[in-house]
Design brief:
Radius of gyration: 22 Å
Strand content: 5-15%
Mean pLDDT: 77
Order of helices and strands: HHHHHEEHEEH
Helix content: 40-55%
Low-confidence stretches: 6-10, 32-41
Strand order of the largest sheet: 1-2-4-3
């Protein structure tokens, strides 16, 4: 019998059921995240369509159900939005790399992790920017190595420009970056 594709991410009960009935006829799902992981790994389109029709509204939250219902309709728009996000992320990365005192780590997500390398405290920087209605996340408590980190979201070009200008004023003018 092949191991369950989500071993370690599902409950012990689900693992026992899979061990007993996992001959290709049992599909286990837990939440929308695991649902999509299984779809990519183990489900063909016909089986996925059967699951979509069989899942009751009360088994998943209404936002997830709505998303599943409109996914096919807006797939092209979603793919175009991803292309635009990638372009803006690359442009914003180059912009952030010009700020002295900010080490920007390359990212494939819609945010960057940055290290403050000029002695600024991330908590203080986040608080100062919040006063200007700009939100960044202080990550220092999550990475216990004595350094100062923040997470900066990739937003619209206008919002990214506003943040970059505020960061230049708050922490400096040309930065240490890794190759993107």
């Amino acid at each position: 019998m092949r191991p369950h594709p989500m071993k370690g991410f599902i409950s012990e009960l689900a693992e026992r059921l899979y061990d007993r009935y996992g001959d290709g006829t049992l599909c286990t799902t837990k939440g929308i995240g695991a649902f999509w992981a299984l779809q990519a790994d183990a489900l063909d389109k016909e089986r996925l369509d059967r699951i979509k029709k069989a899942v009751s509204i009360w088994n998943i939250n209404s936002m997830a159900e709505f998303f599943m219902q409109i996914l096919d309709k807006y797939k092209k728009d979603y793919e175009e939005a991803l292309v635009e996000l990638r372009k803006e992320r690359e442009r914003f990365y180059r912009k952030l790399c010009q700020i002295e005192g900010l080490k920007v780590y390359p990212s494939s997500a819609n945010y960057f992790m940055c290290e403050l390398v000029n002695g600024r405290k991330s908590e203080e920087l986040a608080a100062e920017l919040l006063e200007e209605q700009i939100l960044i996340k202080d990550l220092t408590g999550k990475i216990a190595n004595g350094r100062q980190y923040v997470r900066i979201a990739v937003r619209s070009r206008r919002e990214n420009e506003q943040l970059a200008e505020a960061l230049k004023i708050k922490i400096g003018i040309a930065a240490e970056c890794e190759k993107y």
